[in-house]
Amino acid sequence: MKIKRLEKVYEGKAKILYATEDPALMIQYFKDDASAFDGVKKGTIVDKGVINNEVSNRIYKHLEEKGIKTHFVEQLSDRETLVKRLDIIPIEVVLRNVAAGSLCKRLGIEEGKIFDPPILEFFYKNDDLHDPLINDCHALIFKWATQAELDVLREYGYRINSLMITFFKERNIRLVDFKLEFGRYKGEILLGDEISPDGCRLWHSETGEKMDKDRFRFSMGSVEEKYREVYNLVCSDKN
Questions:
Q1: Which of 26, 112, 135, 173 could form a disulfide with 168 if both were Cys (CB 3.0 to 4.6 A apart)?
Q2: pTM for the whole structure
């Protein structure tokens, strides 16, 4: 598909969105920029954009095959993907299978505790407010989503989590937790954004070694190496 990239519509921490000649489609460009702790720590992870683009697209193709509707249309290059233009719902859906990260700090839970069933949380997407934890009442009162939409987010969240656990397990990766973003498109709710080592906690199934952005957050070293390892494990069968 030949698509012309037009003006920049939005630039975030990890991606740039460009308009196209088709108002229903956008080009999503993945950057190498990295940030943590609400932008307090900034840096670059070499080839992160290429890896995240490839990994996310491989996962979205898998989810589409399993009946999950996403914004993915076509990968255009190593850093660019054509996606449907969504009206983003300002709620992040976080699935937690194992205790880690902010949950441990917030609730005093020891890292590594297994959750069965998994924990699903909603966060309001607002960088200035540091993406606060919310519940249904907040979303409804402030009209960020309807109850029917919240029900869909929950249903999709649990379904995607189940599919992803299996997908990663088959590749020797333990899915600890991850975030999802959704948007409205022609009367439907579609999965948007990306699923990559930037937005997931991924531990090696055998060694327990961390293979995600925590390595950058906490200056653990071997960041590019572990991102590349995730790429190799996830995309080895992409064709």
A1: 173
A2: 0.95
